[in-house]
Design brief:
The protein is α/β, with parallel strands linked by helices. It has 28 helices and 33 strands. β11, α20 and β12 form a beta-alpha-beta unit. The longest helix has 55 residues. The C terminus is likely disordered.
Amino acid sequence: MDIVSPVLDIASRICNCVGDRADHLRRLPQNLKSLRSEKEKLKNVYKDVKERVEREEDLEKKRTHVVGGWMERVEAMEIEVNKLLESCDEKNQKKCFGTCCPRNCRSSYKLAKMVPEKIDAVAELQSEGSNFQEVAVPLPSPLVIERPLEEKPVVGLDSPFLEVWTLLQDKQVGSIGIYGMGGVGKTTLLTKINNMFLQSSIKAFDIVIWVVVSRPTNLERVQETFLDRLDIPDDRWKGKAEDRKAKEIRRVLKTKKFVLLLDDIWEPLDLVRVGIPPVGDGNESKIVFTTRSADVCGGMAAQKSIKVECLEEKEALSLFQAKVGEDTLNSHPDIPKLAEMVAKECKGLPLALIVIARAMAYAKTPEEWERNLQKLRLYPKDVAGTETYLFSVLAFSYDYLPDEATKSCFLYCSLFPEDDQIPPEHLIQLWIGEGFLDEYDDIQEARNQGGKIIQMLKHACLLEVGTGPFSIDGEYLKMHDVIRDMALWLACEKGKKKNKFVVKDGVGLIRAQEVHKWKDAQKIALWNETSIEKLREPPRFPNTETIIGRRFKFPSGFFTNMSVIRVLDFSKVEIRKLPAEIGNLATLQYLNLSGVMIEYLPIELKNLKNLRFLMLDQLFSLALLPNQMVSSLSSLQLFSMKFFSSPSSADEIMLLEELEQLEHVNDISIMLTSIESSQRLFESHKLRRSTTFLQLEGCWGMNQVQLVSPSCIKELVLDKCYELEEVKIIHCEKQAVPSKFPNPQCCFNNLLSVRVKGCKKLLNLNWLIHAPKLQYLQIEHSRIIEKVIEDERSEGSEIESGLSVFSRLVYLTLIDLPKLESIYEHPLPFPSLRQIIVRDCPRLKKLPFDSSICMSKKLEIIEGQQEWWDGLEWNDQTLMHNLTPIFSTSVEAYKMLKAPNPFHPLTRQSLISTKFESYSANNGNLVQFPPYSSLIQTTTGTSPSSFIFSTAHLPSSLPHSEQSFNFHGTR
């Protein structure tokens, strides 16, 4: 029997096993070194990925599941490797005396065998992390965005609302048309439907999209609304043709169950061209739209059409009484019955009921009601056409306006485009330029009266509150489309003179023959991509007093024959050269060239001896003003030149000297960039008393600003005055106090807005205690400021006017103030405050609110970082609980102060006139800017190759300091 072979085989296997183990043990030191090296490499890859993720999350994105899982596995692997290395080190120290052999060969072998396995696992994680193309994705859009209900209470819409809501849950119905006469409540009904998705437990839809279509139908504008809601990447949208944009919209919507709410359709909308996929046929998406015409419901192939009827008598009377008010209704026993008779005349039309009720709200005697009821009955009760019937009713509100000036101001609003957001200060300035408020010699008094007229028109429901940002002159305005149509109808003498008011919005090219029909035009308004073809001969405008608009183009010779022209508003008009013939318009009194990319002004402007208002804001391409041009404008009252590429100090001084020569100038808005020009302004009594807007930017070497009181400065901007240490008040007691200062004891009674940015040596703003009417305060990038106001004089917080500190403050913004500890020493009521933004103010541990801040119900949002909010100290825990619901970490609150007017002194960041494509950050990474062609056109009206760019639109990961990155472009 052969026993040798098995023995030899066993011996061989034992030798191999021992050799394999010995090999692992022999290689252990080198493998441990490799494992440590691979671990460090993985650690570096992990850091790079984590930094990328954090940058993306700062931009409101979320990390992908793949990346999140990888990061968790890396963290777990690091723990495992560290334990393995510790075990190996421990075994290495426990060897047999005088040898290199471990005491426990078996356990040492197991460890030695694990090391190469971990090296491979670490290398695999390292490779995976180095190949991530995408680490984060945008956060999903919210299901629905809440819209404000403009009129409360909502009366008479319960039945149509229930019908529409039921149809939205019917899988067989895809499109629903809501139609009815103008002002009947269609938009209110659609808004109620939109907002119901916020409360509803129904989770059947992925997104609700609201689109205002309006007229004329603008397909590009409709598509842009989808861009905002669907988060389509810029590289798939910017610069693409209409059909490509439609393809992108269709691609995204096909993956969602959507509800599309289309408001104010005047003609059938081609949904295929927009990019909306078909609805119905069981795909569960819905389209709901409003229109005034049942024919549009048919043209849009609505599966269900719902007519919104006028209110029943009881509902109409209830709405009418609510709007008139109990005070008026109870002022005489006969008035309730008269109110019922007036309500019946409105035929249940909600808009008419509201307008007439507001017009009657101050009629406190039966005689006034009877007189106006008889006047209302002079209009026909049953008019065939919707618009005619509505105009006849709404014209009563116009007739009820108190004087011709107010009526002219109202009709003037119809010159603005439909659905336009109208800045109140711009509107009032135009009214003054038109001469509607000529009875007031002082511009500020005229502005005050303009503000009263706006309030009067809002109360009469002839103007409404818009959606733009709250400005120092009030909230943005808009005109309901029905009211606007009625106003144009009235302005054109109830349609008898069609071209008395000419308004063109986005119509493209206007033919020469149509222009020649404008010879009877009194006012011409051209808006948004409107241009006039080349004319064979200059047109004649013998009756034209006004030409206003934006983003329109005019041909050569257009201004040759204008014998009575009074107002030219060319703000953001697309021209490079101003026609010299404008200098021959002897009757011109108002000229606005703001935002126009002209390089020089024609010397002929010297001839405008009747010019009273000259606005030259945002002229970033303008090199110089013609010498002695400004001083030649002998009638000039208002001069504005802010937010522009500043000339030299000598040019600024020369401009100030020319302004000082003008006898009638009393309203100056100006930006100065040197200490010499600033001193020249402060030393001049005339210039000081005429300056309403002052921006000091740069001003190297200026460590003190001396403001002389009383002052008429309305807006003050201190921007990048790096050496500025204090703002000092000098009382000018010897000078007589003019009537524009209602309280002589208040130094800055007119000051409404203060913005301080980059003033690195400024310690505090104590002088603000003398600004009782301050509405806006924005402080940014001031490195050593510790207290906004440090006032130990009185705990009552009373200032000279008897008003509390910050009692009128509406907006407060504090950004990048690392040493800020206090806004004010004592709790304050802040009765007007609506928004407060705090960012990067780690030492600010207390907000100076007293308990009445919750009583005012004005405060809408507190925006800041979560860690800052969590670290705040509260004397009153109830106050904290009451304010917590309005705290937000969202940047959307911050953006509200940036748009739509980036040139406003409160929202304007460092503006740069530049051509560039990218910047280099300090770490050397090159970051590409997305294309901003749409931003360019909405803010400056210039071509994409040369534009104004605001750092408000830079990625939030950028450092605050302007020196932290370099622009590849030209300043």
